[in-house]
Specification:
This protein is α+β, with helices and mostly antiparallel strands. Helix content is about 30%, strand content about 20%. The chain starts with 9 loop residues before the first strand and ends in a 14-residue tail after the last helix.
Length: about 280
């Protein structure tokens, strides 16, 4: 039997908490592909009314439980006690912790609280509809040992309508990825083409910037249209797309080019919170 740790105070949602909870949500899921960055108003609007994607905090403040320590929010859990089509079940759909929190302790406390409250409401099972790519939550759910349904609900259908526009939006991420990599000293131009679209990436000391393709780039990359969203969103690694003939490169050193592309477009974990399902 697991020895219980120090009890962590947990309370229910109060109007106004969304300001802190939204900040925590954005911080916890910043490195995932899927969730958009929400404002407090948008976060609260998700739980205004009971829906097939989530509970109503207006009608049931206990659906959001908040862990605190020394008056500071350490994490929260959203549990839907009336999930669509799941009679006798409750669904844990968000589990986020603050950066400075003891993640293991906070998640364990919130999971135990959610399980206890599900039993009190006569539920036969508590399921976790979280991302299997969220290692922290997956480990906590497995350790807790309750029935789980770790699921990202992924049906990935997307098309890139503006390659230059999307790469422009990605410039801060591309620059940050390159800066913290072993290839941070690489400089040059990369042409990216897909179907009838093309764009150039200029890698300089200041970072990565987007522009028109250049005549003599250091690297030419060609991507199949159906593979482009998978590459840019981090759903498939560069190497996998390359061996599947979904991506090709022209460069003096193809191996180095593929390593650089893997730095710029790495595999990214996915998590689409249930409240954002459609």
């Amino acid at each position: 039997m697991r020895q219980a740790g120090p009890e962590l105070p947990i309370r229910s949602f109060r109007e106004g908490d969304e300001a802190v909870l939204c900040q925590l949500f954005n911080s916890y899921l910043a490195d995932f592909f899927g969730p958009i960055r929400l404002t407090p108003r948008e976060w609260r609007a998700q739980f205004r009314q009971q829906s097939w994607t989530g509970p109503s905090l207006t009608e049931d403040a206990d659906a959001c439980r908040i862990a605190e320590a020394r008056g500071k929010i350490q994490g929260y859990a959203i549990t839907d006690y009336q999930p669509n089509g799941l009679t006798g079940a409750a669904v844990l759909q968000e589990l986020c912790t603050a950066e400075e929190a003891n993640t293991d302790q906070v998640m364990r406390a919130l999971l135990e609280d959610a399980e206890r409250r599900a039993r009190e409401r006569g539920k036969l099972v508590l399921m976790a509809q979280l991302s299997p790519e969220d290692g922290r939550a997956s480990a906590a759910v497995e350790e807790q040992g309750f029935d789980s349904q770790l699921d990202d609900g992924e049906v990935f259908m997307a098309a890139v309508t503006s390659l230059p526009g999307l790469l422009t939006e990605m410039e801060p991420a591309l620059s940050a990825r390159l800066k913290r990599s072993a290839l941070s000293a690489w400089r040059g131009e990369i042409n990216v083409s897909c179907g009838g679209q093309s764009a150039g990436l200029e890698v300089r000391t200041a970072g990565v910037s987007t522009g028109p393709p250049v005549e003599r780039p250091a690297i030419r990359v060609s991507v199949r249209p159906d593979a482009l969203p998978l590459l840019l969103s981090g759903r498939e690694p560069v190497g996998e797309l390359y061996v599947q003939d979904c991506l090709s490169v022209e460069a003096p050193n193809a191996g180095e080019a593929l390593r650089l592309l893997d730095v710029l477009f790495p595999r990214v974990p996915i998590f689409l919170p249930r409240a954002q399902w459609w």
